[in-house]
Amino acid sequence: MNSTTSDAGVVDVIGVGAGFTGLYLSYRLASAGWTFAGFEAGPSVGGTWFWNTYPGARCDVESIYYSYSFDEALQQEWTWSQRFAPQAEILGYLEHVADRFDLRKHFTFNTRVLGATWNEGDRLWEVRLDNGETRRCRYLISGAGGLSTPKEFDVPGLENFTGLRVSTSRWNISLDDLAGKRVAVIGTGSSGVQAIPLIAEVAEHLTVFQRTPNYVMPARNAELTPEQVAAVKQDYAAIREECRHSPGGIPDRPVTDRAFDVSDEERRRRYEQAYERSGFLGVGAEFVDLLTDAEANRTASEFIHDKIREIVKDPATAELLVPKYHPLGAKRSVFGTDYYETYNRPNVSLVSLRDEPIETMTENAIVTSAGSYDVDAIVLAIGFDAFTGPLYGLNLTGASGRKLQEVWRDGIRSYLGIMAADFPNFFMVAGPLSPALASNVVVSIEQAVDWIADLLEHARDTKATTIEATVEAEREWVEITEWTVAQTLYATTDSWYRGSNIEGKPNTFMGYVGGVGKYRRMCTEIAKRGYPGVEIDGETPSRTIGPIHQKIA
Q: Where is the FAD/NAD(P)-binding domain (predicted)?
């Protein structure tokens, strides 16, 4: 346990999680003189990248961007091996950061937060841990990743199955354990897409049970050459600045023309170029209206449809794989390696659960409405209870005595995705209604941690003891996020972006999609104006942020 927490049982800040957020949070706050105690459910640092060890697990943001920018020496000394680093390399990077800056001392591992209650009288959070302790802090900050709480298994009859069963979100076997077996993979989101080609190589037979076909782009992963690494390191300062002010947190090539401003031939040429470069790195990078105009999007969607039909030899299988139910980019697109090619293997078959849903399972088979499939092992790639799941798991009780899940029962409400009314001195990094949902999350994490740290220092300078979002500012931010997403094709589709994958979850789009650059500029302006929308010891300079949103380009 951190030696700085031994005073009177009260620490300045408790942080939850030791992944990308928790490590930077501990570094930033400890450097500013705050006492900090972090708690991590796992046995070491890494967060999401500690748990996600399924075959093929890797990030779908290029490694040179999916990394910290806060320390120049760190950037220069660490060298990524591939464009898209595998899980083990990302975990190794986080372990290196923890050791380089001596951050492990700030954390207690194998310790989960069971609940936290705001004590109005003492103006402190009382945090209950699964080791039986209760810790008290002035500020409580969640660094729990948005995709860190696995979705509950919702497969009918799963309890009947007696064969090998494993989840991609909590992988605990070797790939060799699937060798020579009849394997079923349920789910074709990011985890399933990455794992399926590798499982197919070892399985006697692989049956993929697809719920909704997705757009899978070729990752074009490759080893980084020494020349590429040197060029990036030489220009890191400019690259990082471009990421911070881009729409998606990666260097974006600005475009102003629309899909129908050019000829059919020119449009297809651009799509081919994008596809060969690395899929579509960001939908909207080729034409400005691909995520706002359905007809423009259709030109890109049909381009990908044609690619699938070219790759997959069996026409019936190809049609099942064609994503016809949502526009390109309206749900999270996925980067994969040899995903569609895998369906050309003789030992791989595809079942569409839209056409034949699972009715039950027996001890050795999956039974759909159309037949029975004998299997020895089941791989569940069914996703996460995104963004709200990790927060609800903290069992927060606010100033009114209500839990966060009660306050958000009819829909998520937050201020900037960072604060929530009725929960003083509580902050979320990359939380619901922040840009984290649709961006390079490391860029969003660094920005949010810096903004929160500056706010805490502002309160310390004025000797304030409570910080809380106003209900009015929270309501206005919800209106801003909803208006912003309504201008896009995100608004047309049910997905985990809206919580549609969790039964009973309110239908709220869980991110701000106006771009990380615009969001950063808004947050900077809010800080400059003395934090309108934030009550500091009951006072706020302004309760409205609408004009700021309208002003910032």
A: 12-225
Task: Quick: pLDDT tens for 308-354.
Answer: 999 999 999 999 999 999 999 998 889 999 999 999 999 999 999 99
Domain with CATH 3.50.50.60 in the chain: 10-149+385-551
Cα 42 from Cα 237, distance rounded (Å): 34
Which residue type occupies 416?
L
Q: Which residue has the tokens 């399926």?
A: 196
Q: Which amino acid is at 148?
A: S
pLDDT one-digit tens code per residue, 415-469? 999 999 999 999 999 999 999 998 999 999 999 999 999 999 999 999 999 999 9
Task: Say which DSSP state 344 is in.
Answer: T
Q: What is 495-533 written as a DSSP string?
A: SGGGTTTSTT------B--S-HHHHHHHHHHHHHTT-TT
What is the four-CA torsion angle of 444, 447, 449, 451, rounded to 10 degrees? -140
- Interatomic CA distance for residues 381 and 377, integer angstroms: 13
Of 306, 334, 322, give the one whose Cα is nearest residue 58.
334
Contact (Cβ atoms closer than 8 angstroms) between residue 335 and residue 60: yes
- Provide the CATH topology of domain 10-149+385-551: FAD/NAD(P)-binding domain (3.50.50)
- What separation in angstroms does the CA of 471 have from each of 46, 116, 479? 35, 21, 12
- Tell me the backbone φ, ψ of residue 97, rounded to 5 degrees: -60, -45
Instruction: Report whether 125 contacts 139 (CB < 8 A).
Output: yes
Quick: pLDDT tens for 251-290.
Answer: 877 788 999 999 999 999 999 988 988 656 555 578 999 9
Gap between the Cα atoms of 17 and 109, Å rounded: 9
Give Dmax over CA atoms of the chain in angstroms.
71
81 vs 246: CA distance, rounded Å? 25
Q: Which of 27-36, 250-259, 367-376 has the lowest mean pLDDT?
A: 250-259
Q: Residues 6 or more apart from 55 whose CB is under 8 A from it?
A: 171, 175, 194, 195, 198, 199
Integer-rounded Cα radius of gyration of the chain: 24
Q: What gap in Å lies between CA 467 and CA 538, rounded to an integer?
A: 8
Q: Please, which pLDDT band fits residue 293 given cuts at 50, 70 and 90?
A: very high
Whole-angstrom distance, CA of residue 27 vs CA of residue 521: 24
**Cβ-based neighbour number of residue 528 at 10 Å:** 9
- From edge to edge, which strands make up the β-sheet containing 365-368? 358-361, 365-368, 372-374
| Alpha-carbon span 135 to 132, nearest angstrom | 10
| Site of tokens 């009550």 | 535
Query: Could you give the percent of the chain with pLDDT greater than 70?
Result: 96
Which of 393, 383, 394, 386 lies closest to 434, judged by CA? 386
pLDDT classification of 553: cutoffs 50, 70, 90: low
What pLDDT, on a 0 to 100 scale, did the predictor assign at position 3? 34
Contact in structure between 450 and 441 (CB atoms under 8 Å): no
Its pTM surpasses 0.90? yes
